[in-house]
Amino acid sequence: MSKQPCPVVAIPACAVEIDGRSIHRVVEKYVSCVIDGAGCQPLLVPAVGEVGCFDEMVSRFDGIFLTGAASNVEPHHYSGTPSRTGTLHDPARDSTTLPLIRAAVAAGVPVFAVCRGIQELNVALGGTLHQNVHELPGKGEHRMNRALPSDDRYHPRHPITIQPGGLLEKLAGRAGEMMVNSLHAQAIDRPAEGLFIEAVSDDDIVEAVSMPRGKGFVLGVQWHPEHPIPMQWPLSKSMFDAFGAACRAKLGERHGRASSFRAA
């Protein structure tokens, strides 16, 4: 019996400089969660910026996984006010991920986005961001607690409310309250047209979005489900299972086979 082909999931890299050398980097946990959580083959995409042929690229992918990062999307991409001095940016990643997202959504290629990734998803489709959530009236502290050991930062920290009628309700098995971790300073301000707010935090920050009328699976979450600790949570497993199923359906479509996946 011939082995079934494995879906290929693109993971865009960050452009960083280490010891004076330019590096395209993806943290290992993002590679592992695509393999172990979604059952797919990761393919790292360098931050190629303006030289990328994005429509051609997405025609070769069965999914795209957008990772978190230390950097923030540059505000000019959403007509935001200039960032404060010292804010870390990655223009090469922005100029890769934003057009890649638009091409993927247009082609129905599954997209799963976490942390910086949900912010990129929103900006790519025309939405805006809050640059410093903790400074907004009535909002809590969502930033990483750097006083904690690295792994402890990924434990549950605050509740979210999953909205009824969406993808997350189906994946979680219910609407209502659930605990997640929190390691971000920025978040969605105005959601892009076509995005459905799947969940909000207890201080009303957008924590998850989907695209019900899109051509394919689209899910973005503001927390980190990919770390080994939250990967044990039932909702994390359900999200990666659903993403993997969507990627396998896309692979089948590319190979001319009937798709058994139906986006929720």
Task: Annotate the secondary structure layout.
Elements: E1 8-12, E2 14-18, E3 21-25, H1 28-37, E4 41-45, H2 54-58, E5 63-66, H3 91-107, E6 111-114, H4 116-124, E7 129-130, E8 158-162, H5 167-172, E9 176-180, E10 187-188, E11 196-201, E12 206-210, E13 218-221, H6 234-254
Parallel strand pairs: 1-4, 1-5, 5-6, 6-13
Antiparallel strand pairs: 2-3, 7-10, 8-9, 8-11, 11-12, 12-13
Helix pairs in contact: 3-4
Structure in words:
The chain is an alpha/beta fold. 26% of the residues lie in helices and 22% in strands. Helix 3 packs across helix 4. Residues 258-264 have low confidence and may be disordered.
Tally of contiguous helical segments? 6
Poorly predicted tracts of residues: 258-264
Shape: globular
Largest sheet: 9 strands, mixed
Major sheet: arrangement of strands: 4-1-5-6-13-12-11-8-9
Fraction in helix = 25-40%
**Portion in beta strands:** 15-25%
Structural class: alpha/beta
Radius of gyration: 17 Å
The chain-level mean pLDDT equals 94
Key terms:
13 strands, nine-stranded mixed sheet, 6 helices, 264 residues, alpha/beta, two-stranded antiparallel ribbon, disordered C terminus
Compact overview of the structure:
The protein has helices spanning 28-37, 54-58, 91-107, 116-124, 167-172, 234-254; strands spanning 8-12, 14-18, 21-25, 41-45, 63-66, 111-114, 129-130, 158-162, 176-180, 187-188, 196-201, 206-210, 218-221. By secondary structure, the chain is an alpha/beta fold. The model is unreliable at 258-264 (pLDDT under 50).
